[in-house]
Amino acid sequence: MRQVVLPVIGTVAAWRREARALAAAGVSPEQVAWCVGEGEHDLFAQNPVSTGIPREIRLSKAALQTIDSALCHSDPERFARAYATVLRLSNGNVRWGDRSDQAIRRILADAKAVGRDIHKMHAFVRFRELPADGPRRAFAAWFEPEHPIVEAATPFFAKRFGDMDWVITTPTVTATFLDGKLSFSQTRAHDRPPEDATEDLWRTYYASIFNPARLMVSAMQSEMPKKYWKNLPEARLIPDLIRKAPRRAVEMRDAMPTDPPARRAAVARSMLEREVSAPEAGSLDELREAAAGCTGCPLHGPATQTVFGEGPVDAPLMIVGEQPGDQEDLAGRPFVGPAGQEFDMAAQAAGLDRSLIYVTNAVKHFKFVPRGKRRIHQRPNVSEIEHCRWWLNLERRLIQPQLIVAMGASACASLTGSGTGILKRRGSVEPGPEGTPVLVTLHPSHILRLPDDLAKARARADLQADLERARSLMEAAAA
Ligand code: URA
């Protein structure tokens, strides 16, 4: 029996190295005992093999990514299972994606659990500001993930909070981001933050900035499972805040400045009214029904009806377009007109089944100007996108997709905060709301506007390629 002790930091990369060396040395899975750091050692184990000539184990990208994710699970058997599976895959004894194979099924399930844990970390880490001497602001957070995901999850924070210094401490690993450089270390016992008066101060602060008009109980509870509450300073306040929210919302409305800039005041007022009167959004049907009566912005007036999203509530993939067009407005369904046909063709060619996808728009009413008998599409403006983001957020929180494809500038603006530079961003995966990844692509309607067949064919191929990418990302995260 050979013992392989993997380091706590860089575990996955070390496993890869060791697995290659063991495979090259012809070591069978039964001969290897794996552990991390100072885990329980096999007393009869020999020293690790790490000097064999690495043999290239050929695996698909999807298999490699999924195995890497599964290696971030806390199951102690994950290393042995991954090693045995890699050997079987490279010997051709099993095919990647074969769900009748118990080990592959388990790897897929572990990778999915890890993905969920990463998503929760992105959503629930709460930073406290620290006194800083230099020009950069400094923050610290404590978080307890279910799995050892710190190295996989924290590059997201580096991207999002790249202009600050911060440290995220977990029970095992601490991520430190200093002057734009992310590094990891093992957490020492005294790194755990004390539950002292500073925490109380923080909580008081949270209570004062807490906006009850934005409180939606069911969405909040589904996004913030109770097990995470203990690490959220604000969590102790939640039951009380939920109880007082309607009254405080009215107080806030009454306390609003009487003469703020007109547009902002109108937006704030209508959002406040809608949120206070909103349903608890327990189901998609309830949400659709509530959205049908939305009068939150002027677009509802001329439009025939609200065109809400459609698709399965457990869809792993969510597609977001701009707004319904003429035909969608009449049919009451998204993407059924000419742009919808382009989308359907590209999706089908990319191997996506529309009946398994949730399809919706950033804005739920058709915006147009009448010209003779025709209604000419108008781009929604920032304020209209802003208003409707509330519905999109509720849809997203119910569906909880693993990936969102944002088609066009309006969808990008709603989901990532920026709708500019879309040509350069095409094909990139960006952090979206509450950590959900957003794949950026162009809107299918631009294909319809292109002047010649060659340009159309290219644009169709691009859209198909982006949707193929979405499919392979989904498969990699799949279970
Ligand atoms: N364009 C969109 O963005 N959405 C639709 O539903 C139709 C056309």
What does this structure look like?
By secondary structure, the chain is α/β, with parallel strands linked by helices. The protein folds into four domains: 2-119, no CATH class; 125-186, no CATH class; 198-255, no CATH class; 284-478, Uracil-DNA Glycosylase, subunit E (3-Layer(aba) Sandwich). 45% of the residues lie in helices and 14% in strands. The chain contains 19 helices and 14 strands. β6 (173-178) and β7 (181-186) form a beta hairpin. The two termini are 32 Å apart. The chain binds uracil. Residues 321-325, 328, 334-335, 337, 339-340, 361, 445 line the site of uracil.
Strand content: 5-15%
CATH superfamily of the largest domain: Uracil-DNA glycosylase-like domain
Q: Per the principal axes of the C-alpha atoms, what is the gross shape?
A: globular
Report mean pLDDT, rounded to a whole number. Answer: 81
Query: How far from one another are the termini?
Result: 32 Å
> What name is given to the CATH topology of the largest domain?
Uracil-DNA Glycosylase, subunit E
Instruction: Count up the domains.
Output: 4
Structural class: alpha/beta
Radius of gyration: 25 Å
Q: So how many helices? A: 19
User: CATH top level of the largest domain?
Assistant: Alpha Beta
Would you report the number of β strands?
Answer: 14
Q: Which small compounds were modeled alongside the protein?
A: uracil
User: Mind summarizing the main beta sheet?
Assistant: 5 strands, mixed
**Proportion in helices:** 40-55%
Contiguous runs where pLDDT drops below 50 for at least 5 residues: 39-54, 201-224, 248-281
The CATH architecture classification of the largest domain is 3-Layer(aba) Sandwich
Strand order of the main beta sheet, please? 3-4-5-6-7
